[in-house]
Specification:
It is a single chain. With about 325 residues, the chain is α/β, with parallel strands linked by helices. It has a single domain, classed as Zn peptidases (Aminopeptidase), CATH 3.40.630. Strands 7-1-4-6-5-8-11-9-10 form a 9-stranded mixed β-sheet, sandwiched between helices. The chain has a two-stranded antiparallel sheet with strand order 2-3. It is globular. The two termini are about 25 Å apart.
Length: about 325
C-alpha cells in the first residue's frame, strides 16, 4: 500500500463525528432516551446520522430492521457490570442494523467484513465514547476513504447494537453463513484506544488485536506486522481472548473463524468502562487516527493479496 493514503484519514472528521455522537447533539444513543423536542429516540437519530453521512459516498446503504429491549440496571453487581436482563413484560423497540457495502470487482465474492456497535449503554446514562463511539467513527472514516479507492474484493461494514438485547450482530452473521458468504476476515472495532489512565498520561498509543481462534490469531498477527511494515508509531500486539463474546463472537459462532476484535488494551484497562465518565474528552484522537490508518493498510493489503497474506504467518 502507498503510505500517501494515510494522509487521507482525517483527525478532524474523527473528532467531529465522535463529539456529534456522544456530546452534541446526542448525549446518549439508546432507545430509552429522546432528546427534548425530538420525535425520535436517540438511537433512531443516530441511525439517521450514520446512514445520512454514509449516503454521501458511492456506497450501498441499507437499514435492516430488528427488535431490541434496553437492559435493566442492577447496582448490586460489580461496578462495571450493572447491566441486567430485561423482564418479559418490558417493551420491545424497533431498531436497525446499518449495512454499508463497497462492491468489489475482480474478486467481489470475497468479503472483508468490518463491525462496530453504535449504541451506548442502555442501563445507565453514559456517552459511551470509548464504548463504542470510537469504533463507529473509525468505521465511518474507513468507508469515506475506501469509497474513493479501487477495490478487488467487497468490503462490508456493519453498524449494530450491542448495549441492548438481543444482539443483532448474531442474526447478521447467521444470515451471512446461511447465504454461504465467503468472508475472508472480520474485524470488530470496539473500545479502540481505551486504555489505562497511566498509559493515556504517558502518551502511549496502543492497539490490541484480540483473537479467540487459531485463524483469528493469524489475522491479529497480520495487523501486528502491518504496523511494523508501515512504521506506524503505534504499540500493536496480539492477545488471546478466552471467552468468545462481543460482536466478534457472533461471527465466530456463525463459523467465521478468522475474526478479531480491535481495542485499546487487554485485559481492558479503561477505568471509565461502562460508566458515565466515558466521555469524548478522554479520547486520544491521535491514537484513534493511527488505528484507522493501521486498519486502512490492512484492508488494502487484504484487498490486493487476499488470503495469501496469511500463508507466511505461523
Amino acid at each position: 500500500m502507498n503510505t500517501e493514503k494515510f494522509a487521507v484519514v482525517s483527525a478532524e472528521r474523527l473528532r467531529h463525528d465522535l463529539f456529534h455522537l456522544c456530546r452534541n447533539p446526542f448525549p446518549f444513543r439508546t432507545v430509552s432516551y429522546t432528546r427534548p423536542w425530538s420525535d425520535k429516540n436517540s438511537l433512531d437519530e443516530t441511525d439517521d446520522f450514520i446512514a445520512g453521512e454514509m449516503s454521501k459516498y458511492p456506497v450501498q446503504v441499507a437499514l435492516q430492521p430488528n427488535r431490541i429491549k434496553p437492559f435493566r440496571c442492577d447496582s448490586t453487581k460489580p461496578l462495571h457490570h450493572w447491566y441486567s436482563a430485561p423482564r418479559e413484560s418490558d417493551p420491545w423497540y424497533n431498531a436497525n442494523n446499518i449495512e454499508i457495502v463497497l462492491p468489489g470487482t475482480t474478486d467481489a465474492e470475497e468479503v472483508i467484513q468490518l463491525v462496530s456497535h453504535k449504541d451506548s449503554m442502555s442501563w445507565i446514562n453514559s456517552p459511551g465514547a470509548h464504548d463504542n463511539a470510537v469504533g463507529t467513527v473509525v468505521n465511518m472514516e474507513l468507508v469515506r476513504v475506501l469509497s474513493a479507492l479501487p477495490r478487488r474484493r467487497t468490503i462490508r461494514v456493519l453498524f449494530c447494537n450491542e448495549e441492548h438485547t438481543p444482539w443483532h450482530s448474531a442474526s447478521y452473521a447467521n444470515a451471512a453463513k446461511a447465504r454461504g458468504d465467503r468472508i475472508i476476515a472480520v474485524m470488530n472495532q470496539d473500545s479502540i484506544c481505551g486504555k489505562s489512565d497511566e498509559d493515556a498520561a504517558a502518551g502511549i498509543k496502543t492497539n490490541v488485536a484480540c483473537y479467540s481462534t487459531p485463524e483469528g490469531k493469524k489475522l491479529a498477527e497480520f495487523l501486528v506486522g502491518e504496523a511494523a511494515a508501515y512504521r506506524l508509531p503505534l504499540q500493536v500486539r496480539a492477545a488471546k481472548k478466552e471467552i468468545v463474546g462481543d460482536d466478534d463472537g457472533s461471527f465466530i459462532k456463525a463459523g467465521f473463524a478468522r475474526t478479531i476484535m480491535n481495542l485499546g488494551s487487554w485485559p481492558y484497562a479503561d477505568p471509565q468502562y461502562h460508566l458515565p465518565g466515558d466521555i469524548p474528552e478522554r479520547v486520544d484522537i491521535e491514537n484513534l487516527k493511527l488505528v484507522a490508518q493501521l486498519l486502512l493498510a490492512a484492508i488494502l493489503d487484504l484487498d490486493e493479496k487476499g488470503e495469501s497474506v496469511f500463508d507466511s504467518i505461523k
